[in-house]
From TrEMBL:
Its EC number is 3.7.1.14. GO terms for molecular function: hydrolase activity. It is an enzyme of class 3 (hydrolase). Signal peptide: none annotated. This is 2-hydroxy-6-oxononadienedioate/2-hydroxy-6-oxononatrienedioate hydrolase. Residues 1-186 form the AB hydrolase-1 domain. One of its GO terms (cellular component) is membrane. Keywords: Hydrolase. InterPro entries: AB_hydrolase_1, AB_hydrolase_fold, AB_hydrolase_sf.
């Protein structure tokens, strides 16, 4: 932002990227017009034991090459329905990556991403987000909340928790959409984001 001479902006983040957007907004609130948080990590909380377990799992499993069936299953968890045909090039790219010398670096990035997410919780600071916030969830998100650690918590319940914790925030649940909601329902996702941004723009213009 500094190098591009952007003083203040709208931030949109997805999953762990949404938690990163929240962290930025909490540390630099004067530089954020609004936040769009898509399937955000950071609202769900983890105990110290749960966080340690997830960190250890990532460290042990991510460096290991996966079979094609495992990779396809991992992709499938991101969608509410069958895998879209447009994911096939990405699956093939992921398979090919395992055969390159860059795979250990890729695995390390994933591992550090999970560790960073767990080491920088934001749930206890959601009330400090004073800029306009849009929460966007796929109604059929299979990854958030964590189904293994928090089987009694639904996506809608977690989304409502976030809405209640963030003052004045808006919430949109997209039907027939999973964790990659912008991939699975691009038209509905874009419509919701543009409606939110246009509302903010109209409000700003009408303010004396």
């Amino acid at each position: 932002m500094d190098s591009l001479s952007i003083e203040k902006t709208h931030l949109l983040g997805h999953s762990m990227g949404a938690q990163l957007a929240m962290l930025f907004a909490l540390e630099h609130p004067g530089r954020v017009h609004s936040l769009v948080l898509a399937a955000p990590a950071g609202i769900e909380t983890f105990s110290e034991q749960e966080a340690a377990g997830l960190t250890a799992y990532a460290a042990a499993s991510f460096p290991q090459p996966q079979t094609e069936a495992q990779i396809r299953q991992a992709w499938a968890l991101n969608f509410s329905g069958p895998l879209p045909a447009t994911t096939e090039p990405l699956i093939q790219e992921r398979l090919q990556l395992q055969e390159t010398p860059y795979f250990p670096t890729y695995a390390q990035v994933l591992q550090k991403g999970v560790a960073g997410m767990l080491a920088a919780p934001v749930a206890h600071r959601l009330g400090e987000l004073r800029m306009p916030v849009l929460l966007l969830f796929g109604a059929d998100d299979g990854l958030i909340p964590n189904r293994y650690l928090h089987p009694g918590l639904t996506t809608e319940q977690l989304a409502q928790q976030g809405k209640a914790a963030i003052p004045g925030s808006q919430l949109v649940l997209l039907p027939s959409a999973g964790h990659l909601l912008q991939f699975e329902q691009p038209e509905a996702f874009t419509k919701a984001v543009l409606l939110f941004l246009n509302q903010k723009s109209t409000t700003k213009k009408s303010t004396p």
